[in-house]
Write a structure and sequence with these properties.
The structure is a single chain. The chain has 2 domains: about 1-155, Glycogen Phosphorylase B (Rossmann fold), CATH 3.40.50.2000; about 160-325, Rossmann fold (3-Layer(aba) Sandwich), CATH 3.40.50. The protein contains 14 helices and 12 strands. The chain starts with a strand and ends with a helix. The chain has a 6-stranded mixed sheet with strand order 1-4-3-2-5-6. Strands 9-8-7-10-11-12 form a 6-stranded parallel sheet, sandwiched between helices. The radius of gyration is 21 Å and the shape is elongated. It is about 35% helix and about 20% strand.
């Protein structure tokens, strides 16, 4: 994937950020701050292909490229960048930022030997035990003044052109639930999510359940704990492109999920978000957004349903009052 936009920007800042959906989404506020600081510079994001369309539609980047393209593997090649044609591409940029693991310094050496004049190569996450949010850490690697409180208070909104392509599934705003995550240790038991579904039905809230390729087991367990056949007040969307998922999340009255990429997406979109944390540190990895509550329990299966639904009710009620939702 390589999407670009024609404009008068002649200088390029190239940001290379491989990683999962959540890792990439957490760079969005930092990239937005960069764009505000460097308005005459074209920003290109190289990263996870699933997230790149969002980066374009939300105005985070001027151009995007898929890190899974084979040529980007030349960053780690002992023979340097030019043998795969990457050198000329990188020399077009005024500055190259790599947020990735480069323990032996090979990436930085390749970039400098290829003639890239301004290079920043740093790990994509803060040092263990640092206790600083990953967005603040990434900003620090660039010497960027970054106000986490301001980032938390702001949000992104998809344009109507995207929303109109993905029609709403209910007449009323649903509770959106994502029961999966990248690790089983990060997943609240499916039976507890099913109990939340029943709680929502008792309040006449429709429920939308989302699942990606890694979530099929959790989804099956959740649906198995609900009555069959399923009523019309619940819909399930599986393995959709992230842009379509985002359009549905943006319409939610509230979102509930584990420490996962979709929880970060909900937070960034300004949706009232309850994010459940087990082993991960919320101080480092919490979703950013104006209406995010994190609830942590170790182990996560000790977290009671009544605690979670209380947070959902309080958050939804507050946002409904303040935003007129």
């Amino acid at each position: 994937m390589n999407v670009s936009r024609t404009d008068d920007k002649s200088r390029e800042l190239l940001v290379i950020r491989p990683g999962a959906i959540g890792d990439t989404l957490l760079t969005f506020p930092v990239l937005s701050a960069l764009r505000a600081t460097l308005p005459s510079t074209r920003l290109t994001l190289v990263g996870n292909a699933q997230v790149l369309p969002l980066a374009r539609w939300l105005g985070v980047a001027d151009a995007v490229e898929d890190y899974a393209d084979l040529r980007w593997s030349a960053l780690f090649a002992e023979g340097g960048l030019d043998h795969m044609g990457l050198g000329p591409r990188l020399r077009q940029a005024e500055r190259v930022v790599c947020w990735l693991t480069d323990a032996e310094g090979l990436v930085e050496r390749n970039l400098r030997e290829a003639g890239v004049t301004a290079v920043t190569v740093r790990p994509g996450r803060p040092p263990a035990g640092a206790g600083v949010h990953v967005a603040s850490y990434l900003a620090q690697t660039l010497g960027l003044v970054f106000d986490v409180a301001r980032a938390v208070a702001s949000c992104y909104r998809l344009p109507s052109a995207v929303l109109e392509q993905e029609l709403p599934l209910f007449n009323a705003a649903p509770l959106v639930i994502h029961p999966g995550s990248g690790s089983a240790l990060k997943c609240w038991p499916a039976s507890r999510f099913a109990a939340v579904v029943r709680w929502a039905w008792a309040r006449d809230w429709p429920v939308l359940v989302l699942a990606g390729p890694a979530d099929h087991g959790q989804l099956a367990a959740l649906l198995g704990a609900l009555p069959a056949p399923l009523p019309d007040t619940i819909k399930v969307l599986v393995d959709l492109p992230l842009l379509r998922v985002a359009a549905q999340i943006q319409r939610a009255r509230c979102y509930l999920g584990n420490d996962s990429g979709l929880s970060h997406l909900a937070g960034l979109l300004g949706v009232p978000t309850v994010a459940l944390f087990g082993p991960s540190n919320p101080a480092v990895w919490r979703p950013l957004g104006p209406a995010v509550v994190t609830v942590q329990s170790q182990p996560l299966d000790q977290l009671a349903v009544d605690v979670v639904v209380r947070h959902i009710a309080q958050l939804e009620s507050t946002m409904a009052r303040d935003w007129g939702r």
